[in-house]
Amino acid sequence: MFTYEMPTTLFFGRDCIAQSGAALARLGKKALLVTGRHSAKVNGSQQAVVDVLEALHISWVVFDEVESNPSIETVRRAAAIGRAEQVEFVVAIGGGSPMDAGKVIALLCTNELDDTQLFTGPYNNALPIVAVPTTAGTGSEVTKAAILTNPHAGTKQSVADPLIFPTLSFADPAFTLGVSESVTVDTAIDAVSHAVEGYMARTATPVSDVWAEEAMRFLGSQLPALGGPLTYDAREDLMYGSTLAGIVIAQTGTTLIHGMGYPLTYYKGLTHGRANGILFPQYMKYMSETMPDKVDTIWELLDVSGLAEFTALMKQLMPDTVVLTQEEIDQFTKLTMPTKAVQHTSYDVTAELVAHIYGTLG
């Protein structure tokens, strides 16, 4: 038996927000816009949302203070504004950080939760969420999870519940045209890791595999172009692949790459996608031994000849190295082992294996 749940209504394509106001009109008469400080203003996404809201006579307030790897403090501050303003829905505009923050803010507008309950629930309700991605990587516009920095746990952790599936998502690839080369690479590799991890997870299903293969096909077609100027068509392929990969992990969750990557982001300052990229080759090495048939399909879909070429590509795109002390290796291994990411991984993950992988990153 398997289940499949995807309650988000997705609008995809250039100018999709302007063409879909009727769907927004059903959500209420006052919105909280959640963004970072700059990019949503520069790439036109915030203005596109505002234009439609004002045409519909929907009032709005904006919270534009979401940082990378959003904190509990930030989402609480935004939710307090949402409550005081009596907003009826949340519009999260940006990359993974604003979208994840917006989801949690929608929960906090309707639930009284301490810092432990925030990550565990139970949750009673959430305001409707509208997601507007402006990078092609996280897939948060179609998932039921949001990642926050949790200082109590000493790492990044997930808030996950079907209540935070976005009600509507507007994926317009035009908003990604001005994304920098480094962010484009980081987010694309994040999307590839979602598709690959979901494809090989213990929790994979026949339905999620269909989406994963389609995601890898589109993402793989653009891997050789990463690191240089990209056309709109290339940006469209990346966003389409990213959204499909998000649909995958909404069903399967993520695996060891993500579980090991979070401490690298929290303690070593690596971006999420870059942490995934430097872990990816060792992960695929072990998966090649565990699920060789699926790995062969992955190489075909990503249009690489095998592990050696894939490793070289990752090192070309992400030449970073991380030298960890033995104390850090032990700490990061201890943080990784209890995670669902380990439970979802299709080979038996031991602390010795995790420590070994961390030791190879330098």
Automatic annotation (TrEMBL):
Keywords, sorted A to Z: Oxidoreductase
Lineage, highest ranks first: Bacteria, Bacillati, Bacillota, Negativicutes, Veillonellales
SUPFAM superfamilies cross-referenced by the UniProt entry: Dehydroquinate synthase-like
Name by which UniProt lists this protein: Alcohol dehydrogenase, class IV
Keyword Cytoplasm set for record: no
Domain of life: Bacteria
InterPro entries: ADH_Fe/GldA, ADH_Fe_C, Alcohol_dehydrogenase_Fe
Species of the source: Megasphaera paucivorans
Alcohol dehydrogenase iron-type/glycerol dehydrogenase GldA domain ranges (all copies): 7-173
